[in-house]
Amino acid sequence: MAELIQKKLQGEVEKYQQLQKDLSKSMSGRQKLEAQLTENNIVKEELALLDGSNVVFKLLGPVLVKQELGEARATVGKRLDYITAEIFLRTIPDPGDVPASFF
């Protein structure tokens, strides 16, 4: 009897530890996305201050390459959309992963 309870408890502890690892991994990914979102919002604000006479460069490997201002703004906008969507998708739990007792 005690052995059965011990095995069941051990199984539950292992499930709990796995959930903690999953949560930690999720939070780490979320923090990384939030940092990227903040950084890209700052870039968007800086690009909004520029006019057509300013020169914009982008970093490709070790080389700076000239880029059109409109293209730079579009790229940052798309990146913001992607990051925002990724954060949203990570926020919504997969129904298969949520225990029935949650609902």
From TrEMBL:
Pfam families (alphabetical): Prefoldin_2 (PF01920)
One of the GO BP terms on file: chaperone-mediated protein complex assembly
Keyword Chaperone: yes
GO CC field: cytoplasm; prefoldin complex
Keywords annotated in UniProt: Chaperone, Coiled coil
Source species, domain of life: Eukaryota
Gene Ontology molecular function terms on file: protein-folding chaperone binding; unfolded protein binding
Chaperone among keywords: yes
Assembly behavior: Heterohexamer of two PFD-alpha type and four PFD-beta type subunits. Component of the PAQosome complex which is responsible for the biogenesis of several protein complexes and which consists of R2TP complex members RUVBL1, RUVBL2, RPAP3 and PIH1D1, URI complex members PFDN2, PFDN6, PDRG1, UXT and URI1 as well as ASDURF, POLR2E and DNAAF10/WDR92.
Protein name: Prefoldin subunit 6
